Amino acid sequence: MTPDGPAYQGRLLSHPDEEVVDQGLGFDLGTLHSRRRALAFLGGIGGMAALAACGTGAGTKSTEQPATSPSASTSSDLTEIPDETNGPYPADGTNGVNVLDEDGIVRQDIRSSFGDSTATAQGIPFTFELTVLDIVNDGRPMTGAAVYAWQCDRDGNYSLYSEGIEAENYLRGVQVADDEGRVEFISVFPACYPGRWPHVHFEVYPDLGSITDADKRLSTSQMALPKKACETVYATEGYETSVGNLAQLTLKTDNVFGDDGGVHQLAPATGSPKAGYTAKLTVPIDTSTEPTAGNAPEGGGGPGPGGGQPPSGAPTGETPSGG
Q1: For FRET with 83, which of 44, 161, 199, 205 sits at 20 to 30 Å CA-CA?
Q2: Which of 79-88, 112-121, 314-323 has the lowest mean pLDDT?
Q3: Residue 187 to residue 127: CA distance in whole angstroms
Q4: This prediction's pTM
């Protein structure tokens, strides 16, 4: 009640003797308008509260933890490097000699033998870099991992095994991964011998102290080299026999890379025969799983590449298998 008569929400009733709902259209419209303004006001307060909860204005610090964007090398981005045979000529103790027991095996430049011999493998200069990543640990670099790499020479022969170079240990070496998970080897461009696409073998161990025990390998795989670089190198003096061998192969017909065409093992290469070539490959490893390959398979192996005979205990067969 007001001095001027009955009222509702501060507004005089048009028909004081009637209920509020019977005050007429004009009164009802006024009431509706007042409610909308109140709701709009309350909505504005709620909206501002919601904005305050979700974010901050310029110059205001939020108490919420910022969302972190995924790393460029998270486990979901990476595919584990395929496990492959270490072939008939590993010299890791699984097939005769173990060069990993010898002083001098830890080196970057693997072109020459070490120990009692200083012979040097000839060929186009070739540097290759492997970056080892741990899939289980969000793709982080495997700092301190030891990588043993080996390959054939310009003639398709393997030191310590092939006829005439049993006393040599060139084109074999170990490097320890740096803070970025990288190892680098200085070598010569390998040949293409019958039955195998040009490649480099490697094994990854958890640390340098583990390299003398093949059972501690985390991964055994191979790096494939791109066809264009191979063709260019094989057109130079000393690589003549590789020309015909490469012409009979593709990555899909190779007995190692053929499963997927080497999609995860093909290393891009840059350079020229005069300046030498550089190849780089990322090597993701799933350390939570057991390696599925490593030692040379039973059967296969055959005559050593480049005409050498297989060593005692090497697999036998008609064609090289996983060399």
Answers
A1: 161
A2: 314-323
A3: 6
A4: 0.73
